[in-house]
Amino acid sequence: MKSIEEIENEIRAEFAAFTSPDDKWAYLLKLARNHPGMDEKLKEEKFLVKGCASRMFLVPEFKEGILHLHMDTEVGADNPLISRGLGALALKIYDGRTPAEILSADPEFFQKIGLQQGLSPTRSNGFASLLKQIYLYAKVFSALAARSK
């Protein structure tokens, strides 16, 4: 499995190759369409990402020291593909990692690659809330793992 840094470098290279701002949106839409989503039964209010314009769910699963993240948006007539693409991009980096790996990752990565340029304030806030929730889950499961040793 590639390290977080290796995946970030790949994403950085992809973003650097974009020749138009529309390339970023096309990339996020492709991620959204290819994202497997999650079982509808997991979409409970307690897993709702607060501050997100669309209804996004982030469900943690901690097994054998690894944090697995399940994310999806609510599907409907106004399917929030950009939000779903942003979530899929975050999972590309953080899913299947130890809490320590997540906590040691650069929290400014997405700003450094210019991802949030052009996002509406509500999408930008929602994405920040998603990242905050991922880091919070990593902190909680890191503490639980340390306590069980």
TrEMBL record:
Pfam families found in the cross-reference section: SufE
InterPro entries registered for this protein in UniProt: Fe-S_metab-assoc_dom (IPR003808)
Ranges for domain Fe-S metabolism associated: 13-134
PANTHER family reported in the protein's UniProt record: SUFE-LIKE PROTEIN 2, CHLOROPLASTIC (PTHR43597:SF5), SULFUR ACCEPTOR PROTEIN CSDE (PTHR43597)
Protein family according to the UniProt entry: Belongs to the SufE family.
Protein name: Cysteine desulfuration protein SufE
Lineage: Bacteria, Pseudomonadati, Fibrobacterota, Fibrobacteria, Fibrobacterales
